[in-house]
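ugh ok fine here u go
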Amino acid sequence: MTYVRFFLIAFIIILQILVIVLSKSSFAADLFTRQKQNRLASIVASSNLAPFPNEGFQKAPPLSAKSAIVVDAKRGNVMSEKNSNFRHLSASTTKLMTALVVLEKCSPDNIITVGLVNSNGTQMGLASGDQVTVETLLYGMLMASGNDAAYVLATSCADSYDAFINLMNERARKLEMANTHFDNPAGFDSDYNFSTADDLAKLARDAVANPLISKIVATKTIVLTDVSGIKTYYVENINKLLGEVDGVEGVKTGHTEAAGEILLTKATRAGNTIIVVVLDSQDRFDDSEKLIEWAFANYHWQ
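structure:
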């Protein structure tokens, strides 16, 4: 009887311990679930924040740019605009669309053997016969605005050059860029290569949503190599606002004599992100910095 009583007491004690442990585990699981749900709710809430004018709102500063727009990067809300639907030559901002189409058709680690090199305008330093990855070419095209890289990518990441251009215009239609057309991958001046500030803001929002493009355009300098590791390409970002203006994270410059100075900029402060576009500016960096400072001083997100 003594042994029976002992085992019975031991069994009851073990049972009580199990009940306590299980209840704590259940509590911990419930707590973890609630914390996870709260984090998700916070993320969703953050993504749903919209910009609202502050009390004492001031109008946007005067600009030298003939066309401009400021939009919320997440929702697309227009915060300021100046002739934003007026058509302009898009210059090298075209390369953002080139990059998006490239990443639809090619993997970043695909290796391309360079054929003929387009040596007009800005270059990343390619030579016929170089073997480089798509990612290396994207760095050269988006940071240094290499026309050589743009043409190599366009002729390598589609069935034909013309097919690539068609894909650029198809992507523009999907983004509802109603006043945009492309006829080359680099942004050379043409009556058939144009856009607007409003459309380019849509393009910039789409481009920076791609993690690789977002990473590249936020890079100030980088040393790249061909696949052999022997030939190097020193690439420097043309965007002078990087590292100089708080929160600037890219996006793309553009400039020709006919197009004037162009700049698409992404800037983030306190978790809120804006896209600024200036077209045909006399000083694209000054105009863009003015709009960035104005936007964050005159808007709050809720």
